[in-house]
Amino acid sequence: MAALRPWTLLAALCCAWCVFAGAAPSDPVKAPNFTLLDLEGRSFALYRATGTPALVFLGLHSGDPDAEALLKQAAEQWPAFNAETRAIVLACSPHDATRAALSPSFLSFHHRYTVLHDPAGIIARALGLSQSGAWRRIETHGFTMEAPSRLDPDRPAAPALTPELPSVTYAGEAGAILARRCAGCHRDGANAPFAMDGYRSVLGWSAMMGEVVRTRRMPPWDADPEYGRFLHDAGLTPLERLALLQWIDSGAPQGDGPDPLLGNTAAAAQAWPLGEPDLVLRLPEMQMIPAEGFVKYRYLDIGLPPSDRDRWLRATHVRPTNPRAVHHALVFVREVGTRIDPQGEFMTSYLPGMGPQRYPEGTGKRIPAGAQLIVQMHYTAMGKPDHDQTEVGLYFLPGPPARELRRMAAFSRDFEVPPMMEDFAIVSTLTMGEDRYLYSMHPHMHYRGKWMRYTARFPNGQEEILLNVPHYNFYWQHSYELEAPRLLPKGTVIEVRGAFDNSLDNPLNPNPMATLRWGEDSDQEMFAGAMTYASGE
Questions:
Q1: Which region, left, alpha or beta, applies to residue 128 given φ > 0 means left and ψ of -120 to 50 means alpha?
Q2: What backbone torsions phi and psi does residue 107 show, to the nearest 5 degrees?
């Protein structure tokens, strides 16, 4: 396409603006909520974008040869009404493209306007933007949207923003995705709110499933796919996300063939997936959980039999008897004559959806001679009185491993977050005093936690983002285990940056008028970029 004639673009925008102003009204349509990442890896959620009365979304395909011309023309025209309208570009790309691979025109444009990466054009499709150059205005009061428009309505062959998939059915690709990505938690006896055990069990939840897939709340995996490769990655790929949403939007057809979820139950034989533990310990008594209110952390000795020699673990499995009521459980080692540090070393843990922890080959965790095991239990009130007696399964090594697996953290206790502060930045660093192998990372904040990022600054001057969590969720505190250990040479600085959201816009915030300081209870705050490592010597 030749460069757009300014009067052509201006006419298109003015026509659309007249429609927006009420000259040719159409029935408003509710925009579906969604979450995307911008080009710097920050989270954007539609229903929280209330800073201006309106938003304008422009869909552009990363392979569109006219993308740069369209961006330049839009930049010239949009400021005319940008005082009350925030301009946002959906950078739609092939499903396997990274943000870094987007054309330089997108990278330069994001300093002027918000540019969101939309792999496979999933959100463009949800907003009804089919071709590159299509745009749509959304009112932030009620998030209603008018009919879409195009920057260049006369262009004959604008690239499609979303790939065409064949018909998706439950018996085909949709059910296979649910079985692969969701059914492990959504089964009888697990902690999910309903079981996916057949077509009828998921049909009634399909609309809700579409909403949580678009907003990336499910499956619960918060790592930015741009950085790092992790074991047990539970996130959907763009094509999986697109297939599920297409299936839901087409009415969730069943299709022909066997039911991929039939009989998805928690079999008793799978109680210990790694096999029967060498030793099973239990909380000393049944823990009673109230129906309402915040339940303070409980510290309980689980009765490890005494030993006059060190013992080494190759795996552990913390297994609540009532997973719906257990927010988390941390198992600490307390040596003779010492006290545990809630922010210090812990041996193993449980978080919702977490199964057994098998330690990397050649490593193990040490229980010193004479030590006790203390479990920190954090329960959640579920609206009725409840109970739990969590079990801890221990799997021992026959002797010391090549490397001892340990824990370190870049953390800060010296902060004070003012009331109503939406993005209170915080940073902490940790310097390696020796060569160390990094195995996993564990971001930890409480209800006001917003995002966290780990960056390694190596002695040779190079930098690498190891993990980016754009949307931290207190209810899903993951352990991000690297596919392969990362060597951190002596002198490497790990910088952990993050932010708290103490505003009204944070739906988890128990009290936006509180001044936040470090504290153990969940209505206070913590900032800890925890990591597991082994000495490289």
A1: left
A2: -65, -35
What are the two backbone dihedrals, phi and then psi, of residue 323, each rounded to the nearest 5 degrees? -65, -25
| H/E stretch holding 318 | strand 311-319
Q: Give the pair of three-digit tokens for residue 155.
A: 């262009």
**HEC string for 382-413:** CCCCEEECCEEEEEECCCCCCEECEEEEEECC
Q: Is residue 330 within 8 Å of 318, Cβ to Cβ?
A: no
Residue among 273, 126, 267 nearest 210 (CA)? 126
Compute the average pLDDT of residues 110-120. 87
For residue 537, give the DSSP letter. Answer: -
Encoded tokens for 129: 């933007």
> Rounded to 5 degrees, what angle do the CA atoms 95, 100, 101 make?
55
DSSP string, 329-342: EEEEEE-TT----T
DSSP state of 293: S
Contact present, 91 and 60 (Cβ < 8 Å): yes
Q: Is there a contact between 448 and 473 (Cβ–Cβ < 8 Å)? A: no
Mean pLDDT for 498-503 is: 97
| Strand 436-444, strand 528-535: pairing | antiparallel
pLDDT tens profile 242-257? 999 999 999 999 999 9
- Separation CA 162–CA 15 (nearest Å): 26
Q: What is the mean pLDDT of the chain?
A: 88
User: Is the per-residue pLDDT at 127 higher than 50?
Assistant: yes
Q: Quick one: pLDDT band at residue 155, thresholds 50, 70, 90? A: confident
Residue 440 has pLDDT above 80, yes or no: yes
Mean pLDDT check: name the lowest of 94-98, 367-371, 477-481, 528-532.
Answer: 477-481
Can you tell me the distance from the alpha carbon of 503 to that of 507, in angstroms, rounded to the nearest whole number?
9
Taking only the tens place, the pLDDT of each residue in 23-45 is 344 567 999 999 999 999 999 99
In the chain, the amino acid numbered 66 is D
Amino acid occupying residue 278: D
Q: How far apart are CA 450 and CA 468, in angstroms?
A: 12
Residue with token string 């899903």: 476
Query: Can you read off the two tokens belonging to residue 95?
Result: 């499903």
- Closest among 128, 104, 99, 136 to 116, alpha carbons compared: 99
